[in-house]
Automatic annotation (TrEMBL):
Cellular component terms (Gene Ontology): cytoplasm
Gene3D superfamilies per UniProt: Anticodon-binding domain, Bira Bifunctional Protein, Domain 2
GO biological process: histidyl-tRNA aminoacylation
Domain Aminoacyl-transfer RNA synthetases class-II family profile: 29-329
The protein's name: Histidine--tRNA ligase
Originating species: Paramagnetospirillum kuznetsovii
Catalytic activity reported: tRNA(His) + L-histidine + ATP = L-histidyl-tRNA(His) + AMP + diphosphate + H(+)
Lineage summary: Bacteria, Pseudomonadati, Pseudomonadota, Alphaproteobacteria, Rhodospirillales
Compartments, as annotated in UniProt: Cytoplasm
GO molecular function, one term: histidine-tRNA ligase activity
């Protein structure tokens, strides 16, 4: 058993790291709730086509990173690599078109088979939001403002930079696709094999290539902004003006594209230089055709997702948990357990000193960072009393059992 290790790219979340994760998740959920978002939870695996049809057959996620398997019925299932497609599927499956506009928050594990590195695992955790049913660019502004609020609440505003771009509407992308294909065709032989395969099927994906040779070619490629329709240009102008009005700093990055095929109009990323080369901590964009592509009615949407592992590496030490009270039985163990349960019902965190002499039990209380020790000795129990010891100051006093809860609540 001693040789057993977690699968490569996964790790155990022990209490201290779990506390940091929980802090990030709760900060995101609290902010999302303030913006009117309700929580949704979708299964961690879906029919494979939920992802293969929506993320794009040529995307790295579909071609290289999905954990796909056949169940006992022969159905092809996939562990979710991201949250948006599952939320969109849930929207269709549950007939939520009558509930628009819909604001949804999610959190939980995602799975991608990629090279593990700092802050990037094969089982990782995300928090995210989706705003469905609003065509207006004001929805983009609100969703980005929520992202900024989450990062600000976590104390990360000074550590991140918002980069934003437009991917245009369908008319703009078709014009840009033709322009980009014409440019890249001159470099076909110099492109990587993946990019050559994408050139005819989805040339925009080449803009997101990680291959160094591809990146040098892409540096001089035409920009999407040169192909924008008047409507797409006005849409993006409204988004950037809205961010300026709200005082949210950003920079326009005309080379920014998102790695999944369903995005249109606004694309954005919050990046940092504090985590090495992989600097994106929160990213998202608009996807007006996704739900129609999945078989539902056309429903505009915009959302983002953030990596909990990456954010937890950036945040300062989260606020400490409330210090517990240690109940130390030195006589009738069940009487002490009864005292512990009474305190817990009163909302007090209690650590139980199970065994050992007084010295060992007090050492456990100090290790648990207990604020007070409640000593339940035989004589005190007979008098229906306990002794409360201040573990910071060293003083102690005897307190009647009937007054214990209110006395400790006042002290704490």
């Amino acid at each position: 058993m001693s040789s057993l290790q977690p699968v490569r790219g996964t790790h155990d979340l022990l209490p201290d790291e779990s506390r940091r994760h929980r802090w990030v998740e709760e900060a995101a959920f609290t902010a999302a709730r303030r913006y009117g978002f309700g929580e949704v939870s979708t299964p961690i695996f879906e029919f494979t086509e939920v992802f293969s049809r929506t993320l794009g057959e040529t995307s790295d996620v579909v071609t290289k990173e999905m954990y796909t398997f056949s169940d006992r019925s022969g159905e092809s299932l996939t562990l979710r690599p991201e949250g948006t497609a599952g939320v969109a599927r849930a929207f269709i499956s549950n007939g939520l078109a009558q509930s628009l506009p819909l604001k949804l928050f999610y959190r939980g594990p995602m799975f991608r088979h990629e090279r593990p590195q700092k802050g990037r695992l094969r089982q990782f955790h995300q928090v995210g939001v989706e705003l469905l049913g609003v065509e207006s660019p004001l929805a983009d502004v609100e969703v980005i403002a929520l992202a900024w609020r989450v990062l600000s609440e976590l104390g990360l505003a000074s550590k991140v930079r918002l980069e934003i771009n437009t991917l245009g509407d369908a008319e703009s992308r078709e014009a840009y696709r033709n322009t980009l294909t014409a440019y890249l065709s001159d470099f076909r032989s110099a492109l990587s094999e993946d990019s050559r395969n994408r050139l005819d099927r989805n040339p925009l994906r080449i803009l997101d290539s990680k291959d160094e040779g591809d990146r040098r070619i892409v540096e001089n490629a035409p920009l999407m902004t040169e192909s924008l329709s008047p409507a797409a240009r006005e849409f993006f102008q409204t988004v950037t003006s809205g961010l300026q009005t709200l005082g949210i700093p950003f920079m326009v990055n005309p080379r920014l594209v998102r790695g999944l095929d369903y995005y249109c109009h606004t694309a954005f990323e919050f990046t940092t230089t504090s985590l090495g080369a992989q600097g994106t901590v929160l990213a998202g964009g608009r996807y007006d055709e996704l739900i129609a592509q999945m078989g539902g009615a056309r429903t505009p949407g915009i959302g983002w997702a953030a990596g909990v592992e990456r954010l937890s590496m950036l945040v300062e030490e989260p606020p400490p948990l409330p210090r517990p009270v240690s109940v130390i039985p030195m006589g009738d163990d069940m009487a002490a357990m009864h005292v512990a349960e009474r305190l817990r019902r009163a909302g007090i965190s209690v650590d139980m000193g199970y065994s050992g002499n007084m010295k060992k039990r007090m050492a456990r209380a100090n290790k648990a960072n207990a604020r007070f020790a409640v000593i339940c000795g035989q004589e005190e129990t007979a008098r229906r009393a306990v002794t409360i010891r201040d573990l910071d100051g060293g003083s102690q006093e005897e307190v009647p059992l009937d007054l214990l809860e209110q006395h400790l609540v006042r002290l704490l």
